[in-house]
Amino acid sequence: MTAEVLARLQFAFTVSFHIIFPAFSIGLASYLAVLNGAWLWTRDGRYLSLFNFWKKIFAVAFGMGVVSGIVMSYQFGTNWSVFSDKAGPVIGPMMAYEVLTAFFLEAGFLGIMLFGRSRVGDGLHMLATGMVALGTLISATWILAVNSWMHTPAGFSIAENGQFVPEDWWQIVFNPSFPYRLVHMVLAAYLTTALVVGGASAFQLLRAPGHTVSKRSLSMAMWMLVLVAPLQIFAGDQHGLNTLEHQPAKIAAMEGHFERHEGGVPLVLFAIPDQQNQKLDYALEVPHLGSLILTHSWDGQIPALSEFPVEDQPPVWIVFWSFRVMVALGFAMLGLALWGLWARWRGRLYSDPWLLRACVALGPAGFVAVLAGWITTEVGRQPWTVYGLLRTSESHSPLDLPALTTSLIGFVTVYFFVFGAGTFYLLRMMRKAPDTPRLGLRDGPIRTAGIMPGPTMTSGERSD
Amino acid sequence: MLGLELSFIWAGIIAFAVLVYVILDGFDLGVGILFPLAKTEQERDVMMNSVAPIWDGNETWLVLGGGGLFAVFPLAYAVVMPALYVPIILMLLALIFRGVAFEYRWRTKRWKRLWDFAFFGGSLVAGFSQGMALGGLVQGIEVVDRGYAGGWWDWLSPFSLLTGLAVATGYALLGATWLVMKLEGGVHDRMRRVAQPLGLATLVFLGLVSLFTPLQDEVYFQRWFSGGSLVFSVAVPVLVLLCAAGLWKGLRGGGDRLPFFSALGFFVLGFIGIGISFYPMIVPPSLTIVEAAAPDSSLAFALVGTVILIPIILTYTAYAYWVFRGKIDPSEGYH
């Protein structure tokens, strides 16, 4: 174990946990804004029930995202101080803008969104909900600008002291891979949320068939899936072409493409990459399909791994397989979306037990796909922190091994305990169906001739 | 020349962000430190609900402090973080426990006491670690070739333990006076009583830290006991005593808000004291503000937005505080 390996393990571990929560809370914040808007627009109590139900789940997920995010913002310095010193002048201002434009916005309005409806009135409460949703999207924009710059650096020069000096901020922020990465990630967040909402609603419907509130949320989630799953596959394809242009070694690793194939690049469905001997074992291939997807021609060529020095190749096995997991899940999501569309047409969306079970089974698929996609892109960047310019082996802090070992053990223990408990609470909250709205005086047909039937709405009681 | 000015403006902004963090998260960490003093379930609920809508915004200033340092003084960030590795990691782990406790404790009956303890322990360890980190910074960090050159326990000393205790005690005072301002009934009266010894202890710690700080470095000594800054050396203690008088007057029945704002005064003055010692260093004894600053193109880009955004942030943060103004209604909360 070297300091570099330990620093990488720690970063990979903490960021893997962290990325799960934003992937969920970006989508959920937008969903809450839609629900709140739909409630104000239609005064249909089902939307308010859903808002109050998912609001609490959002609060728990957001809390976990905040605390794991603070760790990330300090870890650049604690474990990657050389990287921080050199890349800080470029990356730091973007991260500062993330704090100023996104984190404060979310945090400032979160309290009002969660606790303030009765204090500020519907209009301002809607504004607060919208601001929280906007904050999550702005946050994603900045952090993906940072991440994309590390993959496709642009708009800088290098000073004598080794620091990257910003020359053109427009080029830095809108670096070549940024638009693709941003779209891919935001769509992933929306897909993840749609799958979770759909899975929870399907579970509730399996337990309480015909529950009107769960039917509404399942319907919304399945529409979202129909909309986003095909879009995401298209966006992923475009992102892949962009990566081929700027990071060909990564694409070659994703495809397991060690040597050039003269007639055309096959698509490898299954194989065991053997990086030491620079070949694929047990390959199951579809001839020419790789060329067709990546170059949109029958015999187009892409650079092979053999054209890069071994020390500049990413770890092939990890990238090859994580990419396949992501793609397979993407197509499974598309399949579920089409199945849902078919069932809706046949009037069986809420009652087909196999469809509902499939929704439950794919409920966590978004998280797995996000993690797999993240591993593909980040491990694929290796052996660089700033692609082609700053090696990972030259980026870590001058720290003693025991310091890194102890902190890694600390993070692993605390994360599994704390976020394990959080996941348990989230699952328990989602298991119970949202409260059914009771019609009250204000919202229902006026029959009671002025006699108060009690509180207008009952939802949002203690969950246990 | 431009670079010189920009880096000093930025040093001011970072100092401001850290000060805002210390006074805002200071009181809500303090509420956590005082959590065991609640006698009933309901007292714990209102104590937590007095900060639940705002703690996240308060903690964001910590991210701005760290993120801002990374953005405009990357070299200082790269040197300080490995040097203060242990207290920083401790603080991060503690903040995890404390942050999730706000939601978790409402989600379970069986484990509620555990998350109550996490809220208390996380707040205490976070405050103590921040204090130790401060002490570690004040006593100086060894830098060679743009990197930290010491070991991972160099920060630990009687002085950093003293500053750790000082900050944790000060946070508890902030928490107690905040609760005096925000609550009513039994817990309010108890906090009023607790705030007196806490105020006294904070004053003693403030005195001890001030006494030992000039001994950490020749430069501090010069700064405090000679030349033009002697005016400050006299003014700061006088103002501290004024705040102490305000605190006592408030706690003896002179209004529920006065103690909180007097306690904030302690922190502002202590902070100014550190500023007097440090200037123009950012990482004593070897890195100045100018040396650690990022290139002008970074400083200018970040400054444009910051100057526009900070007033906006302060406005809506103030609005959020205004929405939740007044004494806490025990029946409120969304749980």
TrEMBL record, chain A:
GO terms for molecular function: electron transfer activity; heme binding; metal ion binding; oxidoreductase activity, acting on diphenols and related substances as donors, oxygen as acceptor. One of its GO terms (biological process) is aerobic electron transport chain. The chain crosses the membrane at residues 20-41, 53-74, 94-115, 127-145, 182-206, 218-235, 318-342, 354-375, 408-427. It is a multi-pass membrane protein. Signal peptide: none annotated. InterPro entries: Cyt-d_ubiquinol_oxidase_su_1. Pfam families: Cyt_bd_oxida_I. GO terms for cellular component: cytochrome complex; plasma membrane. Keywords: Cell membrane, Electron transport, Heme, Iron, Membrane, Metal-binding, Plasmid, Transmembrane, Transmembrane helix, Transport. It is found in: Cell inner membrane; Cell membrane. The keyword Transcription does not apply. It comes from the Bacteria. Belongs to the cytochrome ubiquinol oxidase subunit 1 family. This is Cytochrome ubiquinol oxidase subunit I.
Automatic annotation (TrEMBL), chain B:
InterPro entries: Cyt-d_oxidase_su2. Keywords: Cell membrane, Membrane, Plasmid, Transmembrane, Transmembrane helix. One of its GO terms (molecular function) is oxidoreductase activity, acting on diphenols and related substances as donors, oxygen as acceptor. Pfam families: Cyt_bd_oxida_II. It is found in: Cell membrane. Signal peptide: none annotated. GO terms for biological process: aerobic electron transport chain. The keyword Membrane applies. The chain crosses the membrane at residues 6-38, 84-102, 114-138, 158-181, 193-212, 224-248, 260-279, 299-324. Belongs to the cytochrome ubiquinol oxidase subunit 2 family. This is Cytochrome d ubiquinol oxidase subunit II. It comes from Alloyangia pacifica.
